[in-house]
Amino acid sequence: MRIHNLKVFGSDFKFHDGEICTAGERLSAVSVDNEVLDGQGLYAIPGLIDIHFHGANGHDFMEGTPEALSAIASYEASAGVTAICPATMTMSKEDILKACANGAAFKPQQHEASLVGIYMEGPFVSPKKVGAQNPVYVHAPDLNFYKDAQRAAQGLIKIMAIAPEEPGAMEVIAALKDEVLPSIAHTCASYEVAREAIAKGAAHLTHLYNAMPPLHHRDPGPIAAGSDAPWCEAELICDGIHIHPAAVRAAFRLFGEERMILISDSMMACGLENGGYSLGGQRVTVTDRRALLDNGTIAGSATDLFSCMRIAHQVMGLSPETAVRAATYNPARSIGVLKDYGTLGEGKIASFNLVDASLNLKAVILRGRVLTSLISL
To answer: What's the Cα-to-Cα distance from 368 to each of 68, 116, 180, rounded to whole Å?
Structure first.
């Protein structure tokens, strides 16, 4: 396949006049067949990579069944999220191992996103900052627990959330920093504790601003500690509900666009109507994309990553280039899959999106095949 008449998102994170060629499931320098399509002046961007989300399309990763994961991966691909790294919840060890094993066994069908990792969000969180995590299953940081989960996942766990102030957390971070990315999450950590954790290897902040102390001028907390360390990155939920647009813009200034990652943190209601759902065994009510536990706590989002990226540009004022980078290249780098994903370079997996200048989705190409298209290609 050859698609010409495009603006292509380049390795310099800018758009350039160009074309895209595929050879089977990979991007190629030249087309290997006679199929030539007109991109009509649209913009080609890499397929999005959601490294932190829980579910969509009526299903949750923690269900631990092939049917649930297929339904999730099918929806994500249709929305332009062509690679996924679903997250566990703070639930029983048995449930976490089941979900990890199910992820390891997943093989995508032609219409389903590729699974490129697993995000272990629970259970090593602070009981004082559980957010929408289930407090019943909060567990002290435990090296053996993690290793059992990683064995079940067959090495797919890429990020492990951890509250660094909890007993044993610093030792777990130091022991695992070379095999998984520890992430400061659901935490009450001070600036000093977070800084120590980052120095030991926790070079990531889970859903910045949420479930952590705020940035205060006398007690700056983990946000300032992460900003101070140039090797530390941060993820952000840009659904327009979790974080005020001004705070989103401030985060990109604090960390720089090279360290910011857009995530959806979506739950099973993503893609569906208002109503009652569940997350981590807890009841959730969704109204106009706002997902709440019975106690009023925000329970993930009901917005897919592509919509978050578009909101980040159209509503929050990020440039298209910055928003695209934070939803493609940066997450691929974070979980170590740049070899195959994150850019439109030759030899990469041929999963990409065609969008207009405002980042409205026009077509999804998944592993070299046109999956959905709102235009005539």
So the answer is: 25, 17, 30
**Per-10-residue mean pLDDT for the chain, 377 residues long?**
96 97 94 86 97 95 97 98 97 97 98 98 95 91 98 98 98 98 98 98 98 96 98 96 96 98 93 84 85 82 95 97 98 98 97 98 97 88
The count of C-alpha atoms lying within 13 angstroms of the C-alpha of 123, restricted to the half-sphere facing its C-beta, is 21
178 is an active site residue: no
CA 301, 305, 306, 311 dihedral sign is positive
CA atoms within 13 A on the CB side of 278: 11
Looking at residue 286, its pLDDT comes to 84
| Burial (CB count <10 Å: 0-12, 13-18, 19+), residue 40 | middle
The label of the residue with tokens 């999005």 reads 48
Say how far apart CA 128 and CA 366 lie, in whole Å.
42
Which of 178, 265, 304, 340 is an active site residue? 265
- Amino acid in the structure at residue 178: D
Of 17, 38, 18, the closest CA to residue 29 belongs to 18
Instruction: Please state the separation of Cα 153 from the chain's center in Å.
Output: 18
CA dihedral 251, 257, 259, 262 (to 10 degrees): 70
Question: CA triplet 295, 298, 302: central angle to 5 degrees?
Answer: 130
| CB hemisphere CA count around 65 (13 angstroms) | 6
Q: CA-to-CA distance for 35 and 89, rounded, in angstroms? A: 44
